[in-house]
Design a protein that fits this description.
Aspartate Aminotransferase, domain 2; Aspartate Aminotransferase, domain 1; 12 strands; binds pyridoxal-5'-phosphate; alpha/beta; 373 residues; 2 domains; 13% strand
Length: 373
């Protein structure tokens, strides 16, 4: 059996350090924020090359706080991609604003910058690109458009820990970056977690206050805040995992390279890794016709796959909007029908990758490419 992700393998590899770090928090009784979280924040700010990083209780809360800190509120519009996890749109809605979607570039599955300007109105306040699957969105044109129209850029980097665009880490290219440490993410807590990163001291101050009841000093509630604090145990777990994140990321990239090569030999298109980017392969996404049948066939052979995502956001019931009917974003809608996520985690063995590709080749019935000899 080849699982889609394997969190147990990772825990086994670092169990003594994790267990000791958790016990440290139990003994300190700093269960909410505290030293373990502060230490992690310092490490994470250095890792993302930002001045400030704040531990938050989830990636969704991080997005919500980033929007509020940027001044997004009722009646505003935020431009984002139609093809993302629902939390991106949910956070915009929590802030009282309306998500306005644009279609994707079918090569990268990311927001197509060429479609942003047509979506800008007098109400537009921010652009929220998502670095989907760990591949950075095309940030140069996004930033250029944002500066020209005086819009704030909030990166949804929930899948892009350590990803780089032209040598710069995701989460530091826009005005504010948001990360998720949900257990299955490239950097995963042992529970819920998230972070906000920024170089802007005003945004930093507001995020720090909002996550803890809008107070800089206890009971001085200057802003209407939230209970969005990171737990001490999560800070401690993440602190341990930061020692390994680069090695794990390189292991994912090596696995992806192996997939790329074998899929190429099998005549199946590998997901394009665009130039000037460090793709961190949160998801290794291929496209297949007749996906349900292919996925079933793989499951029968003990190979577990995922779909990210079966519906673009504008075709979910919750976020349907008459402005964006079915057919509004053909590339996103097609991706939702074709995308198949292959097993991907740092501990994935090369021989497992060979097995996945062999099974995929059979399931898609693509004849073997003739080698010249
Ligand atoms: C996981 C994810 C989120 C939400 O993060 P949580 O920590 O689960 O709240 C937001 N956006 C994207 C793109 C994600 O993948």
């Amino acid at each position: 059996m080849i699982p889609f992700v394997d969190l147990k393998a990772q825990y086994r590899a670092i169990k003594p350090e994790i267990d000791a770090a958790i016990i440290g928090v139990l003994e300190s009784t700093q269960f909410v924020l505290g030293k373990a979280v502060e230490d992690f924040e310092k490490t994470y700010a250095a890792y993302t090359q930002t001045k400030y990083a704040f531990g938050i209780n989830s990636g969704t809360s991080a997005l919500h706080l980033a929007l509020l800190a940027a001044g997004v509120g009722r009646g505003d519009e935020v431009i984002t991609t139609a093809f993302t996890f629902v939390a991106t749109a949910a956070a915009i809605d929590y802030a009282g604003a309306t998500p306005v979607y644009v279609d994707i570039d079918p090569r990268s599955f990311n927001m197509d910058p060429a479609r942003i300007e047509a979506a800008i109105t007098k109400r537009t306040k921010a652009i929220m690109p998502v670095h989907l699957y760990g591949q950075p969105a095309d940030m140069d044109p996004i930033m250029e458009i944002a500066r020209r129209h005086k819009l704030v850029v909030i990166e949804d980097a929930a899948q892009a820990h350590g990803a780089e665009y032209k040598g710069r880490r995701c989460g530091t290219i826009g005005d504010i970056g948001c990360f998720s440490f949900y257990p299955g993410k490239n950097l995963g807590a042992y529970g819920e977690g998230g972070a906000v990163t920024t170089n802007n001291p005003d945004y930093a101050k507001t995020v720090k206050m909002l996550r803890d009841w809008g107070a800089e000093r206890k009971y001085h509630h200057d802003l209407k805040g939230f209970n969005y604090r990171m737990e001490g145990i999560q800070g401690a777990v993440l602190g341990v995992k930061m020692r390994y994140i680069e090695a794990w990321t390189e292991a994912r990239r090596a696995a992806a390279k192996h997939y790329d090569r074998l899929l190429g030999q099998a005549g199946i298109a590998a997901p394009p890794a665009l130039p000037d980017r460090r793709h961190v392969y949160h998801v290794y996404a291929v496209r297949v016709a007749d996906r349900a049948r292919v996925q079933d066939t793989l499951t029968q052979r003990g190979i577990h796959t995922g779909i990210h995502y079966p519906f673009p956001v504008h075709l979910t019931k919750a976020y349907a909007d008459p402005r964006f009917p079915s057919g509004a974003f053909p590339h996103a809608e097609r991706a939702a029908q074709e995308e198949l996520s292959l097993p991907m985690y740092p501990e994935l063995a090369l021989k497992d990758i060979e097995q996945v590709v062999a099974a995929l080749r059979q399931a898609t019935a693509v004849p073997l490419k003739k080698t010249a000899s």
